């Protein structure tokens, strides 16, 4: 008789409960039982309230700021390892600290590599994530990494807009590969913004490489933080004769004055996923669910089936 793997169990970090519930629903399962004890100084302790011995488990949690979100994932991984789970998959729709993926000046950390190390030490036997800030972060792990692309979520929506004279834009040189990948599937032109920074989150100068006159432009990026780059790029493109400017950003950090910048900018719409909870509602922000994408991949991991069909880019 062929061996049939037992059904996996799905658990949620507190910062991603809403998304985890949607993923579990798409998967066809219920979230596992967890409790969290919190001390008066803020220290917390997760506890699995059901047996996970010998089981494959998925722990869902984005590690967006602050640092307690990463700590919660680590504690849950450690608890699962000590409870004798057989396979422990960290499902991280947003992989935090990824912008620190190299030494860009002396005496700074490579935080993305450090996070990869501690996730594995804590007990993760597999990582599932989406739109890493840099593809090479996959190489920081010694365990399998399933790096999903949100293009599978965004492209159907973009096509449904039925935009004429479509042009894909990258808000910086580093994102040009992503922009070209989108343009390939949408059969569109590409333009690139060249920017110089004074310091992190502060742009000193921006120029446009390419022509946007008479075009409907869609800016493509992996994340939006303060929205300074996207809004400045959108305003510049309207000045250069673009008909409309929309933006796609997988992870909506939207810190500081980001919402105010978006509301005041020439951006017609910011299209993002629900990988991170939105701080506040906005008429200009449209969120598309990534739950089905993650649920499908989790099914394929459980059944040892290829996930390459989920890679549009």
From TrEMBL:
Catalytic activity: D-ribose 5-phosphate + ATP = 5-phospho-alpha-D-ribose 1-diphosphate + AMP + H(+)
EC number assigned by the record: 2.7.6.1
UniProt cross-references to Pfam families, sorted A to Z: Pribosyl_synth, Pribosyltran_N
Lineage: Bacteria, Pseudomonadati, Bacteroidota, Flavobacteriia, Flavobacteriales
Keywords annotated in UniProt: ATP-binding, Cytoplasm, Kinase, Magnesium, Metal-binding, Nucleotide biosynthesis, Nucleotide-binding, Transferase
SMART domains: Pribosyltran_N
UniProt xrefs under SUPFAM superfamilies: PRTase-like
PROSITE patterns associated with the record: PRPP_SYNTHASE
Location of the Ribose-phosphate pyrophosphokinase N-terminal domain: 9-123
An annotated GO BP: 5-phosphoribose 1-diphosphate biosynthetic process
Name the UniProt record assigns to this protein: ribose-phosphate diphosphokinase
PANTHER family in UniProt: RIBOSE-PHOSPHATE DIPHOSPHOKINASE FAMILY MEMBER, RIBOSE-PHOSPHATE PYROPHOSPHOKINASE 1, CHLOROPLASTIC
This protein's GO CC annotations: cytoplasm; ribose phosphate diphosphokinase complex
Highest taxon in the source lineage: Bacteria
GO molecular function: ATP binding; kinase activity; magnesium ion binding; ribose phosphate diphosphokinase activity
